[in-house]
Sequence to fold (422 residues):
Amino acid sequence: MKPYGLLGEKLGHSFSPRIHSRFGPYEYRLFEVPREELGAFLRSGSFAGLNVTIPYKKEVIPYCETLSPLAERIGSVNTVTVDAEGRLHGYNTDYFGFCQQLAKAKINVAGEHCVVIGAGGASATVCVALRDLGARQVTVVTHKENTPEKIASLSDAGILVNTSPVGMYPNNGQSPVDLTLLPSLRGVADLIFNPLKTALLLQAEALGIPCAGGLTMLTAQAKQASELFQGKRIPDSRIPAVTREIRRQCENILLIGMPGSGKSVVGSRIAKKLQKPFVDTDAEIELRAGKSIPQIFEQDGEEAFRRLETQVLADVTARSGCVIATGGGVVTRKENHPLLKQNGRVVFLERPVELLSRKGRPLSSSEEAVKRLYTERFPLYLALCDLRVRNIRTVHETVSHVLRALGYSPAKHPQNAHKRHR
Fold:
C-alpha cells in the first residue's frame, strides 16, 4: 500500500510519524521536497494522503481537484486525500487543531484585539478561527512589519499568536516579540511544538500570562487528518492522551543540584529505565575542551569554563527525549535558565552537604567551600526545578521516586507525588 506522510521543505525533527502511529495502522513518512520539485511530487501518485506544512499550505491548492468549504474559505490546505482516480482533495484540519489548543489552555479570545505574527498558510487559518471565535479585531504583523515600534503601537492587544517559524528548532531561543511591549496581554499561543516551550512561551510564563504551545494543535489536527485518511471517526477524547504520550516521549529530564549530589549516577539509571539517551554535560565539556574540568579551571579560568558550559547546554537541551545531568553551577548564569526549561522538566536532586562528594571538584575543595556554594545556589535550584527530590536513600529508591513523581511509573497518585516535592 502507498504511504501517507508529511509534505514540507525541512522536516528533520517532526513529531508527526509518532502521532499518526497512535491514530491508525498505516505507514507514515516524511516527504522533504524542494520547492522546484513540488509539482512533480504532487503529480507522482506515490502517496495515499498528505499532511502539509511550511511552506506549502497555499502552494498545494492549484493541484487539488476540490477543496473543502473550510479550506476554500481560509485559503490554506494542510491535509490532502487521494481518491480512486488519483485526484487530490484539499482540507484544513489546522482550524480544528488551533481551536483545541486555545480551549485546552482556556484562552478566551472573544471581544479581544488579537495580534497574529506571520502571514503564511497557518496565519490565514488562525485569523479565520479567531474571528469565528468572536475576536473584536485581528491584526496580522508580517516579518517586515515586525519591529518594536510596530508591536508597541498595538499595546491594547489582549491575545498574541505566533504562526511564524521564529524560535523553532534548530533556532531555539529566538523570539518574534518582546512581550513587555504588550502590557494588556491575557493570552499567548505559539504554533511551534519543537521546542516544547519556545522563548516566547517562557517569557509569557515569567510574566504570568496564560500560554499554550503547539503540541496540542499538532495532535488535534493529526487526529482529524487521520479520520479523513481512514474514513472513520476517532473520538476527540484521544487527543489529550496522545498529546501526553508524545510529550513524555519527546521531553527531556534534566537533573540539577550540587556537585556530588548523584546527578550522573541517578541520571544514567533513569535513562536506562526509560530507554532514553543519557547526556552528562560535564563529560561533553571535557570532550570538547580536550581536557578535564579541573584542568580547564586551572589553565583557562572559571569564566571560560562557564562560557563553554552554556554552549554545551544550548546544544544538548535543544535535543528531544534525553536525560541530562548538568554541572552543579549551571544555575548560576541567567542565560542557562531558559535552556534548562525549554524542552523538558527539571529535577533538583538534593543531598545533605555532609554527604556530598568533593573529589575532583574545583570549587568544592573544602567543607566550608561546599557550604558557601550550597547557600548561594539553593534558592536557584529551588526556583528552577519542577520537582525536588532528596537523594538520601539507595540509587534504586531515588530513581524510582523520580520516575513515579514524573508520572513514568505506575503510581496511584503521581500528580500528588509531583506536588509534594515542588
